[in-house]
Specification:
The chain is mainly β. It has a domain at about 1-10 and about 25-70 and about 95-120 and about 145-180: Beta Barrel (Porin), CATH 2.40.160. The protein is built from two helices and eight strands. The chain has helices at about 1-15, 105-110; strands spanning about 30-35, 45-60, 60-80, 85-105, 115-130, 150-160, 165-170, 175-180. Strands 1-2-3-4-5-6-7-8 form an eight-stranded antiparallel beta barrel. A hairpin with a 4-residue loop joins strand 6 and strand 7. It is elongated and about 65 Å long. Mean pLDDT is about 80; it is low at about 1-20.
Length: about 180
């Protein structure tokens, strides 16, 4: 994925100015809500807010800086000889920030002008904040995750008109349904 991003960046910033032939996918603001499964997460999902700005890089390829936000609370029943057994909680806020590279298969699939189909990969860093309830002195496993954020996607967009579309993005980490605004 990193190699793909580097190749796309080189193509975008190469000295030869060339116009992109065919359909343009970039200059699109994607705003979505959905469900997230954070890396190494303990089998639970979290509601997610997601935004990215897609920019054309090469024919059928875009890069999109993104930011997502999800928050989770989990309860634990814990105690020992110094603390009474009871339910304790922790709250985790995760904010992934990075870039998503998307390749569109519209030409290959002979899709009509109303539909876009893509596969993508995201790379970035996830800022995490974990807050434990006062009095909890047990194991704190939630703090042992890497800040590296990786995600694989497959998605589609249905164009309502030339300025608005609805998209569905299914992925290994953050799956969203949302509104695409084309500029």
């Amino acid at each position: 994925m990193l190699l793909l991003v580097l190749i796309a960046s080189f193509t975008c910033f190469s000295s030869s100015a060339q116009t992109l032939a065919g359909e343009k996918f970039g200059k699109t603001l994607n705003l979505g809500v959905g469900v997230g499964y954070y890396q190494n997460y303990y089998g639970s999902h979290m509601p997610v807010l997601h935004a990215n700005l897609e920019l054309d890089v090469a024919k059928n390829f875009t890069l999109a800086p993104f930011i997502s936000f999800y928050k989770y609370q989990r309860d634990y029943y814990w105690g020992n000889h110094n603390y009474p057994y009871r339910n304790y909680y922790y709250r985790e806020t995760v904010i992934p920030i990075g870039v998503k590279g998307s390749y569109y298969f519209d030409q290959f699939l002979n899709a009509g002008s109303k539909w876009d189909f893509y596969m993508a990969g995201s790379i970035g860093f996830a800022y995490r904040s974990v807050t434990w309830e006062d009095g909890y002195d047990g194991e704190r496993y939630a703090t042992r995750r890497s800040p590296l954020y990786l995600d694989l996607h497959v998605g589609t967009e249905y164009h309502l008109n030339s300025k608005l579309g609805l998209f569905l993005d299914l992925s290994s980490g953050v799956s969203t349904l949302g509104l695409a605004v084309h500029f």
